[in-house]
Every structure is written in C-alpha cells, then in structure tokens.
Design goal:
The protein is of the alpha+beta class. It folds into 6 domains: about 90 residues, Roll (Ubiquitin-like (UB roll)); about 80 residues, Ubiquitin-like (UB roll); about 90 residues, Ubiquitin-like (UB roll), CATH 3.10.20; about 80 residues, membrane protein fhac (Ubiquitin-like (UB roll), Roll); about 70 residues, Ubiquitin-like (UB roll) (Roll); about 350 residues, Porin (Beta Barrel). The protein is about 20% helix and about 40% strand.
Amino acid sequence: MFFRSLIFLFWMCWSSLALALAPITIQDIRVEGAQRIEPGTIFSYLPLKVGDTITTEKASAALKALYDTGFFSDVRLESDGNVLVVYVQERPSIARLEINGAKSFTKDQLKDALKTIGIAESRIYDKSLLDKAEKELKRQYLGKGKYSTQVSTTVTPLPRNRVALAFNIVEGEAAHIREINIVGAHAFSAKELQDQLQLNTPNWLSWYTKNDQYSKQKLSGDLEALRSYYQDRGYLEFAVDSTQVSISPDKQDVYISVNITEGQPYRVSDVKLAGQFLVPEAELRKLLTLKPGDLFSREKVTTSTKAIADRLAKDGYSFANINANPEIDKEHHTAAFTFVIDPGRRVYVRRVNIYGNTTTRDEVIRREIRQMEGAWYSVEKVNRSKERIDRLGFFSEVTVDSPPVPGTTDQVDVNFTVAERQTGSIQLGAGYSNAEGIILSAGITQSNLFGSGNSLSFGVSTGLVTRTYSVAYTNPYWTEEGIARTISLYDRSIDTSYLIGVSPYSTRTLGADVTYTIPVSEVNAYSLGYGFEATSVGVFNTSPAEYVDFVNQFGSQAKAIKVSMGYTHDTRDSIIYPMKGWSQKYGVEVGVPGENLTYYRATASEQVLTPVSQNTTLSLSGQLGYANGYGGVPLPFYKNFFAGGVGSVRGYFPGSLGPQVYDNYGNLLNLGGNKMITGSAEYFFPLPGSKGTDKSFRLSTFVDTGNVYGYNQGFSIPQLRYSAGVALSWYSPMGPLEFSYAAPFHYNSVTDNIERLQFQLGNTF
C-alpha cells in the first residue's frame, strides 16, 4: 500500500509539472541552467521541436527523456509566450578520482574495476553508485584473501559543478588457510591428498606462491585435481559431496572442509571400438592406452580419446566426436568401455589469426606457422606451429584454439595468442675462487630487435684472467627459405699469470665469423661458416716448455683462416623450460692452409630429456671433443679443451681439469688438452610447495663426470672426475640464474682444484 501511494504521488507531481504548461505552438526553445552540457546535446534528447504543439503527454515524455539521460538532477518545462523554456540542474561530474592506501593492487587496476560500475573521471557523479563502488573494491580484496579490508569514501565539491572522489582503503592483513580437512578419505593418506591441492597451509614458500590465501577459483581447481587423482587410480564412482569454507571471527584464519565419497576401485573388463572409423581399426587400437585388466584411469580414457581425435584431425576431421561409454558392473567392480567414433565433417582452415603481439611483428610469428590457410585442418601442424612459436623465446606463453566459423559446418579459424616477455636483457655472471678471486662478466642482448626476430648482442667479460668484448648479429630468416646468418666480432684477451696452479701465458685474439644455418627439416639443420683470427701470444719465464717452444717455433703472431661445419637435431619442447625431447649438436672447425695455423677441432654434444611425471624430468647429457694440428703444425695450446665449473663438471674450478705440469718452482700448472669428455645426469623438479605452478624456478639433483686428456693420453675411464650435488635454476628478468653446490668424489685431493659452491647469472660471453 505504501509503494502504491508513493507511485501515485510521484505521478501527480510529474503530471502537475506538465499540466502547469499551457498548450502552445512552439516557436522557439531556450535552455536555462546548463553549465557543461551544450544546448545542442539537450536538444538531441528532447522529443520536441519548433512547430510542435505542447500537450500533457508530450510534456511528460519530454521530462522523462531528459531524466533518463542521467545528466540532470532536476528538469522543468515552462513557457515564455510561445517560447518553450527548459530549465535543467546538472548532476556534478567527477573531476578527480583518488585511491589511497592501496598496496595489493595498483591504482590503475582498482580504477578499472570502478569503471565497470560507472565511476571514472569525467563521468557523471551518481551518489547511488558509491555504496556499489565500495562493495566492488572490497570484492577485489576478497580475491586476495583480505577479508577485513575497510573502504570509506570522501566527496569534495569543486567549482563548476564538479566533485572529487577519494576512496580510502585500509587493507588489513590477508587471511591464511589454517587447516584443510578432507573427510571420508581412507584409501590415501591426508598428506598424499593435500599434495594434489594448490591451496595449502602456510609454508616457507607461501610469501611467493600465495597458496595459503583462499580463492574460490583455486578451490574449484583443487576439487577437480582431487577427482582426477582418485579416478586415475581406479575410483570410478568417486564424488565430492560438499565443501565448507569458514572464517574466524577476526577474519584472519580460513578453515576448509571437503567431504568426499571414495567408492570402490574398478578394473577394466573390456575395451571396444564402434562407429565410423575412416582409419583402419588396427591403427586406432594402437592409440588406446586403456587396456583390459588395468585399473580404471580417467587419464587413460582421456588420452585414448584425444589420440583418436588427433589422428582423425590429421586428415582434416577436426570436429570428430569420440565418446567413451562405460558399462559398469557394480557387483564385480568392473567396467567395459566402448569408444564410439563420429568423425563428423572434414574441416579446413579459413584464417590463421595472431593476437597479443604488440612488439613482435606478425611476419615473425607467421613464418613459424606450419598450418596454412585454405588447407585441411591438421592438429599435428597446429601443435608443431605452437612449438615453433614457443621456441622463439619471445613469449612467456603461447596458446592456440580453433573455433568454428559461424554459419559454416566445415571451416575453422586457428587463433594463436601470445604473451610477450621482455626479450632485452642484461646478463651478468660471477664466480669466486681462492686462485682467481672474483670474475665478473656482463652483456646486453636484444633477441627480438625492433620486433623483427633478429638478435643483437654486446658482451664484455672481465676478471683477473680474461677480458672479452663481443658483438653478434643474427638474422634467422636471411633468406625466405629460412637460412639464418650470424655475424660476430670479438676481441678476447687471456692472461693466466695471475692464477695459481694454471700455466701462465697471455693471448689477445681479434676475430670475425660469418655462419649460415641451413634447415633441412623441422628439427634438423646444417651450418657452414668461415672466419679469420689474428692472435698475439705471450709467454713468461714461468711458462711451461710446451708453450715456450710453440712461440719460439711459430712466433708470437698467429693467424688462422677458419672454416666450420655443423649439424643440429633438436626436438625439445621448449628452449627455456625443456621437459622432453632430444638435442644433438656436432661441429668441426678447421684452420685451412693459407696462414701459419692449420688445425682441426671437433665437438659433439647430446641431451635427452625424459618426463618422469607431470612436473619432473630426467636429463642425460654428454660432450666429446677432439682436436689436433696437421701439416706439420701442432694444435695451438690456446685451442685446447678445458673442463670444470657450471655447464661442465660442477664442483671443480672452471677450466681446472686435465693434464698438469710442474713449473720451475715446483707448482702444478693446468695445461688443458686435445681430448675432452663430460657427462651429466640431472633430475629436475619444482620447488617444494610450488607444485609446479611456476616453471621459471626449478630444483635439480645431479651427478657430473668428465676430464680432459693430453696428446699422449687416450680416453681413460679411471681418470674421470665425478661430483654430485643440488642446483637451483631460475629464469630471472636479467637472464638464467643457476646456483649449484657439488660434492666432488673420485678426485685427487692434491692436484684437483675444488670449488663446491658456484653460481652464474645470465649467459656469459
């Protein structure tokens, strides 16, 4: 009754305003009271024009139209003779919007949230929206686990009918998860189950992962992870019955309870195929990972379904529908599965679209794409395209989807979405030993120069022993066929006289190289290069006889014309965070006749990555090297191989392994050698507590081995050096960082130079 009376009074007031206006034929329209809004804008909303005759209905409609704009707090219509006078009182506009006290969000993030509900600078101020704005800001903080956040608003009038809004935020402390209780679990321990969850109680890594802060989205993901864990282990009838989330009175602690029903484990009694195959049944059966007698596994069902769909999509049937229909025998706890295949229509690609690249040019990405427009859609080619884009190293994330084209049944678009990362970096390296002290190196690299995909790097490395200046420029598509060209210039100086235990000599090498890389398939490439080096060689009174004899025979100025050849095979899934694949690199460098140095230097390296679980992988790698002189010229001693340190055999001082001689004072000096062998077995796993959510951090345990051998030595297994330890790898904004702590074993405590703790930041030049 109250609301009816209120509506009646409102209608009476509105009608009285209209009825107070005597019927006239409008000869002119005048606007009074407007300050910011132009009269022309008001006329555009007014459903009256010169020549119209005012009636009660038209006046009411005009008032309603002007009120509906939201620009005015009061509107009146009056007449001055035959002139219609429109009196308006404008709502104030928001001249300034301030947010005070925000720490968990940037001010721009919160302003964007306010804009979605109609509050932003230059917009009309609506007092009724303030309460909604405060709730929206609190909602943003709820997602951060800050349930005690307080928001107050200050409205300050300003000249020319404007206001300044200030939202004052007291964030308070974030609530932390104190307990996660899974009720009804019997088959697995609480720790096993909680290890599957992203949400967790506070631990030493919570400051970084924030996984101890409740999030509804994270909880939904955790429930699905829990369901997958059970159903991948046979529990076909597993169900999440309910969840309860409670907050302590002081809003600082969160308690989560999950009620589950496990059911019984089921085994697979039979696996059948049905439907329209289009591919020989025998070939499809090979794709099934679910076998009779196995424990039921949802993962195997999904993998089998996807494998069949991918096989059909390879022939253009990208909309194939494969359903795994179970026949459940509850009495014997078995299930028979029939994979029903409906290939659907054959599909081709209308357009290939690229989104998210603001710096990288479209052509840089498109030349890596193997799925062509107008061709049959191929999952294999789309996935290969995604891998090639990811391997560029320009993007932190690459995703792809293939939505159907509206209004068609046989066309899709392929959309690649990339998230660009910083491709320019400052690279630093540092190490320390009792012999050399601190070694520093630095470099600046732009691997995506002006978004062209070309790479330009400048490097400098300096320490007591080495000093290197280098410049390298790479064009990965020097030709349209994908032949890459790299031009490099370098100035490298070495003076080992500062080191204790290393053969003293000095060199300064000025060089230039041009290398061409010729791809022959998606994963294989050959390289061909040539270059020139001019080296000034110096020896000291304490230098070993081998070094002195070389300088006396060939002089202190050495020149070499180099020709190099190589082969690479690389199927790794990522350059930055590889989890699987195989990398092979073979190369030979030859100093050809024409200058006074003739030599050859061959190297081979391999790495195999095998996933052990979803977030862990085993890496096996090895390197071989062999070098010598020819044409009556020995191998220059500064072309020797050296081993030890990060990237070689950790736990030993860099370059310290290999043949040694005594100087005139009875000190052991390292010579290097013409033969090298190193190997490593390394198991990578995520940081404890991170559960693999951040791939840029990885821990590993490793065993390294290797040594360097001289001209009169053969490869000798008993002389190999070993070490075992742990390492932390982090792809930081300044480049890759690696810390390692190694415990050497099977080493010579008298002659070997041990360095257990080592680290390197960035790729040194």
